[in-house]
Amino acid sequence: FGYNARDDRYEDLLKAGIIDPTKVSRVALENAASIASMFLTTECVLAEKKSDAPAMPAMPGGGMGGMM
């Protein structure tokens, strides 16, 4: 059930011969074009470079100082 813009009324779209509503097709096509243009115009990728610095040393044990 939906809106038939040609006849300006609400009806069963399948019985009226409208298989795919226009708005759904238009939005799908717009989204596909947007994604395709993004892939075509992307020239770089930002990624974090892994550092070779050693890991931080462990924290010293708690307690009173000078006790060994």
From TrEMBL:
Q: Name one GO biological process term.
A: protein refolding
Q: Which InterPro entries match?
A: Cpn60/GroEL, Cpn60/GroEL/TCP-1, GROEL-like_equatorial_sf
- Keyword Transcription on entry: no
Q: Does the keyword Chaperone apply?
A: yes
Q: Which UniProt keywords apply?
A: Chaperone
> One GO molecular function term?
ATP binding
Family from the record:
Belongs to the chaperonin (HSP60) family.
State the PANTHER family in the record: 60 KDA HEAT SHOCK PROTEIN, MITOCHONDRIAL (PTHR45633)
Name this protein carries in UniProt = Chaperonin Cpn60/TCP-1
> Species name for this entry?
human gut metagenome
